[in-house]
UniProtKB/TrEMBL annotation:
Entry keyword set: Cell projection, Cilium, Coiled coil, Cytoplasm, Cytoskeleton, Flagellum
Organism from which the protein derives: Neogobius melanostomus (round goby)
Annotated InterPro entries: DRC1/2_N, DRC1/DRC2
Cell compartment(s), UniProt: Cytoplasm, Cytoskeleton, Flagellum axoneme; Cytoplasm, Cytoskeleton, Flagellum basal body
Record's protein name: Dynein regulatory complex subunit 2
Length: 113
């Protein structure tokens, strides 16, 4: 029985080998399709990741440009404020000098009858 039992599986194996030889192109096609699908999914994931990263970079760039603009405006405001304060001091001194001159003229005219 073992001889006939061992002969049968050999025959089955040979028929499987024939079936697998017949199915080999289909198997290879299926395998190639699976690999193509896997490659497409990987590319899709990579594209999605890169698109998200690009959006994050663009958002961060806009935010950083806004921060730079705000900082630059602050620096310009401080320097302009300093210039204006100096101008005010000069104008105050000029006003005081003119006021003193007019006071002295009024005092001179008041003394001379």
């Amino acid at each position: 029985m073992s001889k006939t039992g061992s002969a049968m599986p050999r025959e089955r194996r040979s028929t499987k080998a024939v079936k697998s030889e017949d199915d080999r192109p289909l198997y290879l096609q299926h395998k190639a399709q699976a690999e193509a699908e896997l490659t497409r999914k990987k590319e899709e994931i990579l594209t999605h990741f890169l698109r998200d990263k690009l959006q994050d970079d663009e958002r961060n760039t806009a935010l950083n440009l806004q921060k730079l603009s705000d900082g630059w405006r602050s620096i310009l405001r401080q320097s302009k404020s300093t210039e204006i304060k100096e101008d005010i001091d000069v104008l105050h001194q000029t006003f005081e000098r003119q006021l003193d001159g007019q006071d002295s003229i009024i005092k001179v005219q008041a003394k001379t009858p």
